[in-house]
Amino acid sequence: MALTTRRRALTTLGAALAGPLALPAAEALAAEDRGHRPRPLWRAHAHNDYEHPRPLLDALDHRFGSVEADIFLVDGQLLVAHDPDALDPARTLESLYLAPLAARVRAHHGSVYRGHRGPLQLLVDIKTEGAATYLELDRQLRRHRHLFTTYAHGRVRPGPVTAVISGDRAARVPMEAQTVRHAFYDGRLADLESATPAPASLIPLISDNWSLNFTWRGTGSFPESERAKLRAVVSTAHGRGQRVRFWATPDIAGPDRDAVWGELLAAGVDHLNTDDLAGLEAFLDAHRAR
């Protein structure tokens, strides 16, 4: 399958590069009501999305194609926070993400973005012991099974949302044992380099820490050896039907961040990581026009 086709397919194996000129949120909603639907920015990933004033909703207003929620298993509940001291029993994965996504998909007749069939990625970062936390997460995802891309007996059935599990690595064991699951696993570069790599039906996403793999932070020229390494990573992943994301990239507005984002786009990296929703939206809109 061609790379462009794979990115546009309604599967866990691709992500689209899209985005018209930016509209403020209110104007975008009005435009949608008139039938003009701004295209989602599938490559935009909202890092620590739950720290925004309106978790999930702010990212969707900025047309992001991927959002990240950190979870802790506490007394049978999946609570969303970055650190244990910020836990709040009212801020659950169900209330902040699962229920709002289910309601939005119902309202939009089967998609997160009205008129656009690509799946939103929900990256769930497990902060407590992985196996036990995943089993509770799996139970909650099954309550919304029609919302999620599903793996069943060797086949992937696309859904409006694709859940990808990151964080504590122990989650992989119960996931691999399942013949039916409503989530997928976030791999690392080590998984990409393995002599027996897992298929994209388990690991559709390869994520890793930029600062541990590259010395360049956007100042001066990108070293050719590092550019070649980046492109080799992307080429290998895409050849296996997997997407690529790096965290810990520069995220302070300015020329260094833009330089890194530009190289990521040029290399075909599928998700750009940010806490600055408006900044990445504007950057992707500007670069789509080039």
List keywords for this structure.
290 residues; alpha/beta; TIM Barrel; 3-stranded antiparallel beta sheet; 11 helices; 36% helix; 21% strand; globular
Explain what this protein looks like in three dimensions:
This protein is an alpha/beta fold. The protein has one domain: Alpha-Beta Barrel (TIM Barrel). 36% of the residues lie in helices and 21% in strands. Strands 1, 2, 3, 4, 7, 9, 10, 11 and 12 form a nine-stranded mixed β-sheet that branches. Helix 7 (189-192) links the parallel strand 9 (184-187) and strand 10 (205-209). The longest helix is centred in the C-terminal third of the chain and has 16 residues, at 224-239. Mean pLDDT is 90; it is low at 1-34.
Q: Please give the CATH class.
A: Alpha Beta
CATH homologous superfamily designation? Phosphatidylinositol (PI) phosphodiesterase
What is the helix/strand order?
A: HHEHEEHEHEEEHEEHEHHEHEH
Unreliable stretches (pLDDT < 50, length at least 5) are 1-34
Write down how many β-strands occur, each being a DSSP E stretch of 2 or more residues.
12
Structural class call reads alpha/beta
Report the span from N to C terminus.
Answer: 26 Å
Tally of structural domains: 1
Number of helices: 11
CATH architecture: Alpha-Beta Barrel
What helical percentage do the residues reach?
A: 25-40%
Name the beta content range. 15-25%
Please tell me the overall pLDDT. Answer: 90
Which term fits the overall shape?
globular
CA-atom Rg in angstroms: 18 Å
User: What summary fits the major beta sheet?
Assistant: 9 strands, mixed
CATH fold assignment = TIM Barrel
Protein name: Altered inheritance of mitochondria protein 6
Organism: Streptomyces ossamyceticus
Pfam family, one: GDPD_2
Keywords: Signal
